[in-house]
Amino acid sequence: MSKAIPESRNYTHTRCRTVTxxxxxxxxxxxxxxxVVPATYCVGCETHFPLDQFTWDDxxxxxxxxxxxxxARAPAWARLACGRPGCLGxxxxxxxxxxxxxxxxxxxxxxxxxxxxx
Length: 118
What we know:
alpha+beta, 3-stranded antiparallel sheet, two-stranded antiparallel sheet, 4 helices, 5 strands, 19% strand
């Protein structure tokens, strides 16, 4: 049986020991090991710090370690597709397909002549 996914979670800044609550989209991004979140906010210090300076209150685990653990448990295809290399690969694949399609349409237009009589 799986645990219910929480709607919010508290974390502590290890330097100042202040607890911060995170919810909604910020919680989703912070919990997603594939989202690009290099830092999070401390309400005590009123600024952002790297994730390795925060621990989840309910487990005591550093947020950065939890994200690495969850990413490592994902299938290889998910790590590739959801990580930066995969996103860049899909972007360049789309660019290549678009260029090839544009080239093909251009060649077809040249072979059949332009509709305006040129």
